[in-house]
Write a structure and sequence with these properties.
The structure is a single chain. By secondary structure, the protein is mainly beta. Helices cover about 5% and strands about 45% of the residues. The protein is built from one helix and eleven strands; from the N terminus they run E-E-E-E-E-E-E-E-E-H-E-E. Strand 4 and strand 5 form a beta hairpin.
Length: about 130
């Protein structure tokens, strides 16, 4: 059974940092396109960062997090991470990781995956709450 489990959320003061983890079981995330999304109360889901398995397209970061958030992948641990620095109250949301099995021969845009193709992601974690507040 393919599964994604997020962890690492919590309460942090503005300017602080958190590292979210996304652990995969039943599959190797290195072969999948990966996305980090978030949803705040009363708001639509937002693509935070997306990257492809082959990295032929540059990693996408939403403008709101560019320069503050960084995604990494540890193939040995079958995990993906979202390092979040200089957190702001507007970053408060439930954060989700998602995986998409890339169709052979198809080129994926990391921006498109994050911005308007999130429904193509087949596997989603349960989410982890991040609250930025003083």
């Amino acid at each position: 059974q393919l599964q994604l489990v997020e962890s690492g959320g919590g309460l942090v003061q503005p300017g602080g940092s958190l590292r979210l983890s996304c652990a995969a079981s039943g599959f190797k995330p290195e072969y999948y396109n990966i996305g980090w999304f978030r949803q705040a109360p009363g708001k639509e889901r937002e693509g935070v960062s997306c990257f492809t398995a082959s990295h032929y397209d540059s990693t996408y970061y939403a403008d709101s997090v560019k320069g503050r958030f960084t995604v990494t992948r540890d193939s040995a641990k079958q995990a993906v991470y979202l390092q979040m620095d200089n957190l702001k109250p507007d970053d408060t949301a439930v954060y989700y990781c998602a995986a998409l099995w890339p169709i052979g021969g198809r080129r994926y845009s990391t921006q498109a995956m994050c911005v308007d193709q999130s429904d193509q992601f087949e596997y989603w974690g349960q989410g982890t709450q991040v609250t930025v507040s003083s």
